[in-house]
Amino acid sequence: MFDIGQNDLAGAFYSKTLDQVLASIPTILLEFETGIKRLYDEGARHFWIHNTGPLGCLPQNVAKFGTDPSKLDEQGCVSAHNQAAKTFNLQLHSLCSKLQGQYPDSNVTYVD
């Protein structure tokens, strides 16, 4: 089971701009893909991959980045952080589909 993205993305907002965080997503996913391939080569065949949640709703992110009401959504969460999470999850879902195609004898389960 893999729960991926939350720490990589949520922590990045403390030192990077939104554009930099978004630009880092392919690199994060490439590292993840490399790890999955290595596990597959070692004999793993069942992968449960859980995406990231709404990062803009994490209390520490709201406290740090939610001081400007114009940057919050209707739930009071940081809109840009949630958009980054959605972008990450879309790319992660695509990667899971790709991996399932590459390894037809495996089970790659993407969980939202």
From TrEMBL:
GO molecular function, one term: hydrolase activity, acting on ester bonds
Keyword tRNA-binding: no
InterPro entries: GDSL, SGNH_hydro_sf
Superkingdom, natural source: Eukaryota
Keywords assigned by UniProt, alphabetized: Glycoprotein
Short name of one Pfam family: Lipase_GDSL
PANTHER family: OS05G0401000 PROTEIN (PTHR22835:SF536), ZINC FINGER FYVE DOMAIN CONTAINING PROTEIN (PTHR22835)
Family: Belongs to the 'GDSL' lipolytic enzyme family.
Name of this protein: GDSL esterase/lipase
